[in-house]
Amino acid sequence: MKALVLEDELRLKELPRPVPGHGDALLRVRMAGICNTDLEIVKGYMGFKGVLGHEFVGQVVEADETEWVGERVCGEINFGCGECDYCARGLSRHCPNRTVLGILNQNGAFAEYIVVPVSNLRRVPDGVSDRQAVFVEPLAAAFEILEQVQIQPAWRAAVVGDGKLGLLICQVLKLTACDLV
Hints:
Number of helices: 5
Mean pLDDT: 95
Order of helices and strands: EEEHEEEEHEEEHHEHE
Structural class: alpha+beta
CATH class of the largest domain: Alpha Beta
Strand order of the largest sheet: 9-3-5-6-10
CATH topology of the largest domain: Quinone Oxidoreductase, Chain A, domain 1
CATH architecture of the largest domain: Alpha-Beta Complex
Helix content: 10-25%
Strand content: 25-35%
Radius of gyration: 17 Å
Low-confidence stretches: none
Number of domains: 2
Largest sheet: 5 strands, antiparallel
């Protein structure tokens, strides 16, 4: 399969198709988004080597749970160990042993195929296009702000940055009825 691989430099390479393990799904990547994190990784952030890309929509090609085969999906990018206290409490994104798709010890979505745990997959409704679905991961990152801070309607908020994530955060903050300046 073709994949965009970062080693000493970014190159399009031919790699073997990944093989899913027990509990994993093999996805054919339909679309992947380019994120500022990807651009920073190319500059050396995180010291990552491998296939970049963590914003994706794909179609399940192979899975132990056959009801997933053929489904159009996106997914959670943090792959927890499944054994630590964080994972036991449903906090796999805080797992000290986690891998992160295209960011930390896990090849990402700038490839024809990726492997993702079935438990991380989310079905994409038929009414949602691939161009919309590829924004699920950055939109989830924007919504995480509301988990971290209980924003009140009487508050005033400002977003510094006019990139994709900044614009998504503005849209999320509008839902709180705060004064967005």
